[in-house]
Amino acid sequence: MADQTLVAAALGLLEGLTEFIPVSSTGHILLAGHFLGFDSPGRAFEVLIQLGAILAILGLYAGRLWRLFASAPHDPRSRRFILAVLLAFLPAVVVGVLAHDFIKTVLFETPSLIAVMLILGGIILLFADRLAVSPRYHAAEDLPLPVAFGIGVIQCLAMIPGVSRSGATIVGALAMGADKRTAAEFSFWLSMPTMAGAFAYDLMKNRAVLDSAGWLHVAVGFVCAFIAASIVVRWLLGYVSRNGYALFAWWRIAVGIVVLLALAAGR
């Protein structure tokens, strides 16, 4: 159990470090768990430790969340933004519920698919980062409702591990006219209901398969994810405003290639 607990801690740190950057946190922890021999009943661990990342973003955005909901009764812009986030969240609810079992039993169990998605996603992210498009939207609160819904539809691609929820939403927002900081920030806002919903639904589906060791691993992973995500969230917006997303794209491509080579070698 000690070795598995240490692995759970490492995977939690990996989750927190990668959840809000466009490299696919789920893809990374699934691949790391595969090569480290981590036992995750029902693949619940990989979803439930996202609670740590959720609390990290809620902590950072607590003041803004309070102001948003406090101003909603008398501020049309606040009400429209809340509606925009809910509209963007809606497609993930439908697809997540309908495809949950296929995602967990097939897609989560195919390391080669995850590696290929990392590489393809990295190429797409490089292309999106270099597009010479004049941004039309410079604040997440100003994204029109149809644009927000479109970003939510694109987010559903991240049901395939290796695609990246943040990567899909960021590329979608960039393609629809958001600047780089706005794309990342709307991805943060959308992560709150999306990840909370995934956590609640997976907990309901898999609570029976987790024994005491499984809950211990989830708790350890949760704490480590919270600590790592708290650091990354504070750093990311400033970084992408100055440097864009190329670093993350090249990281995805490199990891995908290394994983495919390791799988081909029989690891």
From TrEMBL:
GO molecular function: undecaprenyl-diphosphatase activity
Pfam families, sorted: BacA
Protein name stated in the entry: Undecaprenyl-diphosphatase
Keyword Cell wall biogenesis/degradation: yes
Subcellular location: Cell membrane
Broad class of enzyme this protein falls into: hydrolase
InterPro entries (alphabetical): UppP
Keyword annotations of the record: Antibiotic resistance, Cell membrane, Cell shape, Cell wall biogenesis/degradation, Hydrolase, Membrane, Peptidoglycan synthesis, Transmembrane, Transmembrane helix
GO cellular component, one term: plasma membrane
Main function: Catalyzes the dephosphorylation of undecaprenyl diphosphate (UPP). Confers resistance to bacitracin.
Lineage of source species: Bacteria, Pseudomonadati, Pseudomonadota, Alphaproteobacteria, Rhodobacterales
Assigned protein family: Belongs to the UppP family.
Membrane topology, record value: Multi-pass membrane protein
Organism: Paracoccus suum
Main localization (coarse): membrane
GO biological process: cell wall organization; peptidoglycan biosynthetic process; regulation of cell shape; response to antibiotic
